[in-house]
Each structure stands twice: as C-alpha cells, then as structure tokens.
Amino acid sequence: xxxxxxxxxxxxxxxxxxxxxxxxxxxxxxxxxxxxxxxxxxxxxxxxxxxxxxxxxxxxxxxxxxxxxxxxxxxxxxxxxxxxxxxxxxxxxxxxxxxxxxxxxxxxxxxxxxxxxxxxxxxxxxxxxxxxxxxxxxxxxxxxxxxxxxxxxxxxxxxxxxxxxxxxxxxxxxxxxxxxxxxxxxxxxxxxxxxxxxxxxxxxxxxxxxxxxxxxxxxxxxxxxxxxxxxxxxxxxxxxxxxxxxxxxxxxx
Length: 253
Fold this sequence. Notes:
Distance between the termini: 14 Å
Structural class: alpha+beta
Strand order of the largest sheet: 2-1-3-4
Radius of gyration: 18 Å
Number of helices: 11
C-alpha cells in the first residue's frame, strides 16, 4: 500500500492521536496525515465508513482502523521483525489503565481549563491544520461543538479539581513503578505501554519532539500544573522516552 493510499486522520491536539502516530512512525509506516476539526469530524467519520466518530482513524485503502489501540495492533501486524513489535507481556494492562485514567483525565483537565473561559486558546490547535473548507465549517459549528465537548467530557465547575486529583494519584503510581530505575514499564524493551503513558503525559512533560504542546498557549492554571509536575520522575521519564524513541521525523506526506 503506497503512502498516497494510506491516510491518518487526527485531531492535532489529541494525545491519543499522538499515541497512534508514534506507533506508525516506530514501525516506519508511511502515511499522509490530515486533521479534522471537532464537529465536522462527526460527519466525515461516518462518510468514510468508520463505526464511531472518535479519532484517530487510519484509512488503508478500503480498510478503516479506528482508535489508537487498534492502530497499534494493525501496525504490529505489518512488521516481520518480532523485536520491533510493541505488544509484550503485561503491556496491554498498563495501556488500558493509562487510556482510561491518565488519558481521560488529562483531556478533561485541559478542556475544563480551556473551554469554559478560554475557548479561543483551544481553537488554533483544534482547527489550525484543517483544510480551508473544513475550518470554515468548524468555525460556524464551534458554539454548538464547544457545548457538546463540555457535555461529553463532563466539564462541570468541579471537573478540573477532580481530574487534577485523579492525575496526582496516577503520577504517584507511575513514580512508584519507576522507583527501581527500570527503563521500560513492561518487560525489558520498548512497548505500547511506554508509548501510551509517554504520549498521554506529553502535554505536561512538554518534550521537544512534540512541538504542538510546547507552542500551545494555555491559561495560568495549566502552566502551574506543568511547573508543579515537571520534576516528577515520571515526567523526566517521558522526556527520556521521547528523546530515545521519538527523535526521528514522522513519516508524513
């Protein structure tokens, strides 16, 4: 399958999309990345045959692979080198915990700080790389899309504090896990567990290899979170994983 026939559909800001992107790049799989803005993505996902409306989506000819975990599974099947496969013992268990807790609450915390009072700060990362027509449509839909996003992610007045507390507990767990100076979270080599945790915490760790999060303007509360967490062992580990395994240029068109 040529690169021109394989399309990777993302939200630029999404850490789940970064997780899938990293897996594709790790395996050297060529693709063309396109960004769909929120709201418009619902219509476009249905039109391409996806069963759900969530991103990321990988379109490989007529095959539709949806979700970061499914894309990792697909990417692992493409390699003939077992040593490059990302699925190792216990990796899925860590991945699933990180997806359901860390990923969900990073997203909720960020949206809780942005969408109610600073929605204009979210739009450049959500819309910036979309095509002109899609961006125009998304802007027109933004008042409705913003309300739907807040309802979907339970953005209540207490949401930021709740998600911050959940993340503190998960950071404690990860710091404890890494206390034995292990290099990887599952086994003795790089796996989908490492990609997942590093991707989902990249917003706060701010590795150089993920410039989207470094360049994004955010309110003071999120800046304070970054400052408070930046020296935690797990955040230093995230930066090290990016330096060791994410330095190469993505295989985008």
